[in-house]
Amino acid sequence: RCVEAFYIYFHAGRVEEPYVSITKKRQMPKDGYTEEIEKEVGQAEGKLCTHRSAFSRASVIQAFLGSAPQLTLQLYICVLQQEVTVARSIFMVLSLLSIVYGALRCNILAIKIKYDDYDIRVKPAAYLCIFMWRSFEIATRVTVLVLFGSVLRIWIFLVVLLNFLGFCLYPWIIFWLSKSPFPENIEKELSRLGTTIVLCLLTFLYAGINMFCWSAVQVELSDPDLISKSQNWYQMTVYYIMRLMENAFLLLMWYIYKTDFYLYVCSPVLVVQLLIGYCMGIFFMLVFYQFCHPCKKLFSSSVTEALLSCFKVLYFICQLHKSTRLTGKVAVKSPENSDEARGSSKTIDSQNGSIHHSVSSNA
User: Fold this and answer.
1) Cβ–Cβ < 8 Å for 99, 138
2) pLDDT for the residue numbered 16
3) Strands 36-42 and 20-26: what pairing?
4) pLDDT of residue 134
5) Is residue 336 part of a domain?
6) Range of the domain at 254
7) Whole-model pTM?
């Protein structure tokens, strides 16, 4: 692909192309109106776009199935040896940049797939926000997994297995609940077994991405394109709340079971720094979706509205739980209150009887 892409690029424009294709794209709405623009795409340009799309997908696969395990392993070795060599630090920086670049490409691909009908232009501020968001999120996640695995080496396999199986089976569970027919139009030459293998590999990659960060591309097996094109704020909110709770729990277990090996580390400060780092990643994510997203004008609701609605749902659930608890307490105390009321009525009746008797004797 690289050789062919360079060959097409350097020979473009020398020979007149036999035919061109016309694509129609809509601009972002301005003052409530959208314009449709027609563009001629030559054969060479179309092939270059195909190669670029393939390179983007390959960078995502390489980042999360190659660089992410490599970064985790190198950091684990540094923790055990209590030493960070120059060569290992270079490898870790390159691995982290590779993962961040793959996550950035995943975000851009998700935007282009979801809004394929529009002419999308990503500004430098959006790239910067995505880079900061993914850097904080991935770096803190890898560090938390390494710290937990260094003191509880057996339990880390259970944590990784549960995360991986949960995210790998989630698209299949949703597909089974939707009762949609099995997708047959992925590739004409593939048999049913081949299609199943392709879908399993797709969910495998999806689980590998969600192990380390939020997957901007949500797999939906019932969709013809296998990708959900809706912006699900609730799913994203639940993911980040659960991931923050999981990171906090893993750090708490590391803090409880840490050995004398970590005497040179100020543990409370490290825990706070990691939690703040993950929250910084969430902050840059909110800034991106609120101000820098290239298609924010097409959102049915903004990030702030989605967060307010999520908080309202959580508040309603808490209030409902409190009301049920109060109702239970009142139901438990009601027999006691009835006995007290009966006792007080008996004393009032006896006092009235004694008063009536004294009045009659005086008369």
Assistant:
1) yes
2) 67
3) antiparallel
4) 94
5) no
6) 65-322
7) 0.77
